[in-house]
Design goal:
single chain; 257 residues; mainly alpha; 8 helices; 89% helix
Length: 257
């Protein structure tokens, strides 16, 4: 009982500290000076490190989803619905969530380890002594970079996933490129695309926030760097599922009204 109480207490303390960290981000993001060069560098770094992984992940999503679903649709004589079903599934849910989880594994761990190393080697303290605002230079730029880059990567991954699905349909059913994507675009509506795109901004923000929080508050020397990288991935992945549930719930209410 005492151990459970301690776990709950630690959990709520960490949530409070993370909330304070997020509040500090919103205060700093609108204050001068604006680190545009560092933001662009971080956007390039985040996108460049993730684009190959996202492309491969999206391609495999399209292949596997089509291969697994096609036999079932064949039993009901509904193979013609394959492009519509796959496109809606990928755009609405599968693409954003799986690509965000992949992004979290790649980027949140990297940010946590990078900032954690700077923390334990006292580089962050040295920046404060030299008159630089380390929070704005290190944290704000990275959170903004993940927030801006993840939606772009999700759009790219979704497109690759649909192309992977088309390849299977072309091989199995001799469906042409034009016919397949005509069915895809006829099935999709703005109510499918807009909510799925908006929630990726929140996913990117959560990944950057947790990665920076864990790295910036790293303790226990070099051992803490590994703990920061590991816990950044775990916490950001859990937070993604919570945000996804909230996004789906809100979208369902909004479109029912």
């Amino acid at each position: 009982m005492q151990k459970t109480t301690h776990l709950f207490k630690s959990f709520f303390i960490e949530v409070g500290e993370l909330s304070y960290f997020a509040g500090r981000f919103f205060m700093e993001v609108f204050s001068r000076p604006f680190e545009f060069k560092e933001l662009l560098r971080q956007c390039y770094s985040v996108g460049n490190r993730s684009i190959l992984l996202v492309g491969v992940t999206g391609f495999i999503i399209g292949l596997v989803l089509t291969l697994q679903t096609r036999p079932t649709l064949e039993e009901f004589g509904a193979v013609s619905w394959m492009p519509s079903m796959v496109s809606i599934s990928i755009i609405r849910e599968i693409g954003p969530v799986i690509i965000a989880l992949t992004f979290a594994g790649r980027i949140a761990s990297g940010i946590g380890a990078e900032l954690g190393s700077m923390k334990v080697t006292e580089q962050i303290d040295a920046m404060e002594v030299s008159g630089t605002n380390p929070f704005k230079f290190l944290v704000v730029t990275r959170i903004l970079a993940t927030t801006l880059m993840l939606p772009i990567l999700v759009v790219f991954g979704d497109a690759i996933a649909l192309y992977g699905s088309y390849i299977i349909e072309n091989l199995k059913g001799d469906v042409s490129f034009v016919l397949y994507f005509n069915k895809v675009f006829n099935a999709l509506e703005f109510s499918d695309i807009i909510p799925a795109t908006i929630k990726t901004f929140f996913f990117g923000f959560a990944i950057g926030l947790v990665g920076c929080f864990k790295g910036y508050n790293c303790e226990k020397g070099t051992v803490g760097v590994g703990l920061a990288a590991n816990s950044a991935v775990v916490f950001s992945s859990m937070l993604l599922f919570v945000l996804d549930f909230i996004a789906v719930f809100v979208t369902d209410i909004f479109f029912e009204i």
